[in-house]
């Protein structure tokens, strides 16, 4: 069928298999152009189908020649209804991996559940024996705690005071002022329960208990800090508390992996357009200014450039992994450069509806947003009928 983007609020409800495939191929080409990374050999990626997790899977496979198992939660296609983009991404990834003889299998289901953990452990046991790298890259609005049965919902709210600032509707380009009410009730605890480190720890404990982690195994989860402009709603808001918890969990995991000389890291990554970040007020305006400046400076990166750098220049250099004063890996270094942030602060003050297309990279923002769903991808002919019924080799 002919597949077009269909928007509902901030979300696109359709996705294009050919566009998703092209996105994956472009990322693979980028990794191939950068050469071999002596690193991981058997990798589990939790949250492997989009964003940073997909980039991690691609870098592991095509950069390190690693076998990969990917866990994700995606909607499969049905006749006349497209799958979610992560489904098509994973189908394309497996195809490309299998073409060059790389092991790649996927598990589609709720990574927070005991069942999906059990299924994953059994697959590792049967096919890989052990893994030497575990990437934890989940982004979810809800989590059912498998021990208590409680369904937690995360929020994106400031803590303490109402936060008022500028924001942009990136579809219309309209800049307006927005006020976000502070958290109340169990908002903080719930957000920590969803996006904090508890589930990461559960995964590692489960893998360890079954002796599925190789000696010297590494595990990495992703975090964000960002500038003072977005601090009230991000790093000092409810989601920031969850990231604090995630970062603290890295130390707890490293302690629990002493016997096998394992290490857990949090990598602080750059702000990028994803489904999740588009839904956070204020952030899209920040990202559109950030993109503009980083592109002008020739230092713009997407997920794949970020993760390639994480592997080649941080995790697998052959030397000690460089970390900041809080033990975190930083690949947000270019975003946080003082000259970049100073320019954003200046543009932020000036930005209004009439000049934002000029001051910021609204067009780049929109393109990246549509690209997430496989639309507006260069080289794809959208006038040609596309088959929505795409299988993932290892699942179908
Ligand atoms: P994303 O939405 O692109 O990817 C999320 C992944 O988690 C997908 O593979 C999805 O299928 C999977 N997933 C969600 N719920 C699941 C569940 N219940 N069971 C199994 N899989 C599930 O998100 P993105 O942006 O790549 O985020 C990954 C991590 O990177 C998050 O911790 C996020 O906070 C962090 N990060 C994001 C930044 C950004 O600007 N987007 C910046 C820095 C860090
Ligand atoms: Na991801």
UniProtKB/TrEMBL annotation:
Record keywords, A-Z: Fatty acid biosynthesis, Fatty acid metabolism, Lipid biosynthesis, Lipid metabolism, NAD, Oxidoreductase
According to UniProt, this protein's pathway is:
Lipid metabolism; fatty acid biosynthesis
Which residue ranges does the record assign to the Trans-2-enoyl-CoA reductase-like NAD(P)H binding domain? 2-79
**Active site: residue positions:** 234
Residues annotated as domain Trans-2-enoyl-CoA reductase catalytic: 81-316
- For NAD(+), which residues are the binding ones? 47-52, 73-74, 110-111, 138-139, 243, 272-274
- Gene3D superfamilies for this protein: NAD(P)-binding Rossmann-like Domain (3.40.50.720)
Reactions the enzyme catalyzes: a 2,3-saturated acyl-CoA + NAD(+) = a (2E)-enoyl-CoA + NADH + H(+); a 2,3-saturated acyl-[ACP] + NAD(+) = a (2E)-enoyl-[ACP] + NADH + H(+)
Q: What is its EC number?
A: 1.3.1.9
Q: What residues does substrate bind to?
A: 224
Annotated ranges, domain Enoyl reductase FAD binding: 323-384
One of the protein's GO biological processes = fatty acid biosynthetic process
Q: Which domain of life is it from?
A: Bacteria
The family database entries (InterPro entries) matched by this protein are listed as:
Eno_Rdtase_FAD-bd_dom (IPR024906), Enoyl-CoA_Rdtase_cat_dom (IPR024910), FabV-like_NADH_b (IPR050048), Trans-2-enoyl-CoA_reductase (IPR010758)
- Per the UniProt record, the site (Plays an important role in discriminating NADH against NADPH) maps to 74
Q: Which GO terms describe its molecular function?
A: enoyl-[acyl-carrier-protein] reductase (NADH) activity; NAD binding; trans-2-enoyl-CoA reductase (NADH) activity
HAMAP family reported for this sequence: FabV_reductase (MF_01838)
- Record's subunit section: Monomer.
UniProt similarity note: Belongs to the TER reductase family.
The role this protein plays is: Involved in the final reduction of the elongation cycle of fatty acid synthesis (FAS II). Catalyzes the reduction of a carbon-carbon double bond in an enoyl moiety that is covalently linked to an acyl carrier protein (ACP).
| Name under which the protein is recorded | Enoyl-[acyl-carrier-protein] reductase [NADH]
The organism is: Flavobacterium micromati
Please state the gene responsible for encoding this protein.
fabV
